[in-house]
Structures are given as C-alpha cells and as structure tokens.
Amino acid sequence: MTLFGIENQGNKPICVGMSLAKLGELYFWRKNKKVINFDGESIYQTCKNEDGIPNQSGTYARIGAKVIVRDGIDQEGINSNDKISTGYAFVSNDFNSICQAIYQNSAVTIGLFIGEDWFNGIIGKVKKYIGGHQTTLIGFDYERELLYGINSWGEGWIGKILNWIDMNLKGGYYVAKYSDISQSVIDIISFVEIPNEIITDVKTTDYKFIRNLRIGMSGIDVLELQKKFNIFPQTGYFGNITKSKIEEFQRQNGLLSD
C-alpha cells in the first residue's frame, strides 16, 4: 500500500474525493499493475456540480462513483479522464460481504458517521455523531473481525482501537472492530466490472421516485426530476422554477396542480 502514499485533505471537506481517488488507484493497480495518482479534489469539485447540495460542504460517494464510471478520472495535474471500471456496486453492511468485496476488488470506500474520538486516533463506538467521513478499506482480519483502512488526514494520524496495540499500523492508516463501526455506516461502494447487457438494461430503465417532491427539497431525486422535465438550471434544488414547470405539466395533463 505504500506505493500510493497517504493523502492530507487539510481543512477541506473533500474526503469523498480523496477516498474515491485512492479506491481508483488501488483498483487500477489490480487490473493494470500501474501506479497512478488520481486527483481527489477534482472528483469532489465535479460532484458539487451534480449532488444537489451546492451550498453545503461535503458530497455523496455515490455521486462520485457515478461520475468516475461515466466520465473517467483525472490524474493529478492532468485532464486524463482515465476509465477505471464499467460500474460500481453498493456493498451490504455485513462483515462477510465487506471482506469479499475487499478481496475481489482490492478495496472499498466506506462512509461513516464519526465522533470526536476519530480526531484523536481512537476508532470505537460513537457516543455522539459530529458528521460523516469517507475513507477506504483495504484489508481485514477475518478471525478477529477487524477492518483496516486508509484515511486522508496525513501520515501524522493513526487510528487505533482503544487499548489495542498493532505495531504494524503505519501513519495514515487505521484499524477498527467491525462491531464498533457497523451501526455508523452510511454506505459502502466498490468499483466492479458490469456486463454490457446489464448496463444497457439499466440505461433504458426509468428512474424510480420513492417520495413526493415539494418546494424547498434538495437531493439526487430532485436532480433526476429536473433532468426528466428538462428544467434548467439543474441544481438538485426544488425552487420556484422547478415548481412552476411541474405545475404547468400537471395542468396540461389534467392533473391536480399540487
């Protein structure tokens, strides 16, 4: 793992971009045996153009994964648009599935709700959530149900289990008990190769909305609504322009304009 280095995001809220860049580097190495440094900050900036929360810091890993599969990913300092994979998959939040995904694909990106102990390098059960954080899982100890990951807080940070000594743990890495973090998982994503027939089927399937959308809402589903009805600007925020266009569509089709 030392081939790829440890990132340091500083005070920038770009952990999703950093984690996905590392995931891409590891996946690319597994496939091509080439060391490439991908640009995590550019991934984050692209996500902010599409995530529906342009005025909030942070973003969604699922948006980043979609962007990378669709457009490729840039190397640091180069607009290279390297194609990593044909798709991505969400990994089930059980220890066996996580281990299988790491084994098959080199790594997974994991989003977690974390507490202040993380800043002190203590990885345990969270007493009080202070926000979300994205890191990259790169290994496991199946017998002891431990997960090993890479963080993006520089080499001066090491994340350890309380009262646990792992002399092999290096700066920038962490170890966690699965039982300690399992209730804090936001999502787990892996790059995978998807057969062409499945990709074609997905592209021809309409997006399924699962909630009623109203003015003031924001998110991926609002963005899909704006795309479906060619509403611009496509910000992912349900404002007056979106409201007006949807009400016009409802009136024209004999629907209740609600």
What is the CA-atom radius of gyration, in angstroms? 20 Å
What is the β-strand count?
Answer: 6
Query: What proportion of the residues form beta strands (DSSP E)?
Result: 15-25%
Uncertain spans, ≥5 residues at pLDDT below 50?
none
Distance between the termini: 55 Å
Structural class, by secondary structure, is: alpha+beta
- Count of DSSP helices? 8
- What is the overall pLDDT average? 91
The main sheet orders its strands as 1-6-2-3-4-5
- In N-to-C order, the SSE pattern is HHHEHEEEEHEHHH
Shape: globular
Quaternary: single chain
The biggest sheet, with number of strands, parallel, antiparallel or mixed sense and barrel status, is: 6 strands, antiparallel
Q: How much helix is in the residues?
A: 25-40%
List keywords for this structure.
single chain, 258 residues, alpha+beta, six-stranded antiparallel beta sheet, 6 strands, 32% helix, 16% strand, globular
Short structural summary:
By secondary structure, the protein is α+β, with helices and mostly antiparallel strands. Helix content is 32%, strand content 16%. The N and C termini lie far apart (55 Å).
Written overview of the protein:
The chain has 258 residues and is α+β, with helices and mostly antiparallel strands. The radius of gyration is 20 Å and the shape is globular. Helix 1 packs across helix 2 and helix 2 (40-48) crosses helix 3 (61-71). The protein has a 6-stranded antiparallel β-sheet with strand order 1-6-2-3-4-5, sandwiched between helices. The termini are far apart. The protein is 32% helix and 16% strand.
